[in-house]
Design brief:
homotrimer, about 170 residues, 7 strands, about 20% strand
Chain lengths: ~170, ~170, ~170
């Protein structure tokens, strides 16, 4: 019942890695997509991801209620990929939700699942400080969420150029 | 008399890690805060950090003269945290100081201290190239400063999601 | 005939590291500079790099045809540094080239060389998502290129504060 957090920059191979890891756990696979197809660019990306995964996967589009979606799959699946934490945070902010409470609730939920979960998140805080306050609030929340999920995670991985570096569990020498 | 450089993105747990490491060295602890409470957002952050540290710490607010502050504590403390190098660079630029000379002077000063120092800095160069020249100058200076401090450091740590990855000294397998 | 990919943020010591590694392979050294001296800031940077390298190097300025330049040096040199992949991608985009095809062609070319190649690239995707579509396209392409080059590379290195972390080959414990 491992919890795995996969972080990294944009286009660093995070989703692909999460899917490969999930596939190794069994045949009953869930994909929780937090993206909403708001524009053509995003719709195209969602479609690319879906094609790559193939038909072995059940895909659920869920912008906000990740925890509930994961709980209702107990006893039914081998693994779930949640892609991605960053868009979930963005969705919470757009809805004026209580993000801190939601993050805490998700961290609690994870420990009650009976299958492996692979969370895709992003490194968003290694550039110049953003000009606008909303972007800074987003950046802070993503950082805190990553820390909170890393606390409950059995394994944390940093993706660089499509390659996984171990951050938690066993270290870089596994 | 170890010099430790702690780098990472925003909200990656750098300050907390620096404080924990400092606490393990002894009871006489100095916190050099380079932030100036220029607006409410920053004032709130400074206050949060201060509350978290508790009363075991002497806090000095020093936007520019870090080296002098550190030197005057010789023989008096067990460890110092400097938080953060990035704001110090920003303060130097705003005052039109000779940043390169100040950075060099700080690196020299560090080797003359008789207690452990923990420097918090940021990764600011892993986003898109900034539009404006001042941000690019800032980004370059932070990069150079990080390299210079890493040269004199006994240990360099990269924070990812609140977890420390060893970059210098002992490698990731310690 | 090693292929080495060196990635990292701005001013993290990537070029210097690439040059040092190349120097260790032999005396006949090629430097492929993808930068074009379009403004004073860039002209100054190019000049700084050239002075640092010294006269042991042949420098070729080539914004686009990297693969061709590398192929024509077969049998003539010990090592080449390509600095940098990110500017090459930018140059391809500015010329409306078929970037994906060029990237694939370069990856193929690399496997046919008879000397060591050191590619300098950048981490550009660890900040906030850029506002404009061209910057997002650039960011995506750089990410994909880094992944593709990492696939054919014998070694991938992440630079942090001037220090090299092994990402591929031997891991962090070498």
């Amino acid at each position: 019942m491992a919890i795995v957090l996969i972080t990294g920059g944009a286009r660093s191979g995070k989703s692909r890695y999460a899917e490969e890891r999930a596939r190794r756990t069994g045949a009953r696979l869930l994909y929780v997509a937090t993206a909403e197809a708001g524009d053509d660019e995003m719709a195209r990306r969602i479609d690319e991801h879906r094609k790559r995964r193939g038909e072995q996967w059940i895909t659920v589009e869920e912008p906000v209620e990740i925890g509930r979606r994961l709980l209702e799959q107990r006893g039914k699946i081998d693994a779930a990929v949640v892609d991605c934490v960053t868009l979930w945070i963005s969705n919470l902010l757009l809805r004026n939700g209580d993000a801190e409470r939601e993050i805490e609730a998700l961290a609690d939920t994870l420990t009650r699942l009976d299958y492996d979960t692979f969370f895709v998140t992003n490194e968003v805080g290694a550039g110049i400080v953003p000009d606008n306050a909303l972007a800074r609030r987003f950046r802070d929340l993503v950082g805190w969420t990553n820390q909170r999920l890393a606390q409950v995670a059995d394994e944390v991985v940093l993706m660089i150029a499509g390659l996984a570096m171990n951050v938690k569990k066993g270290g870089a020498c596994d």
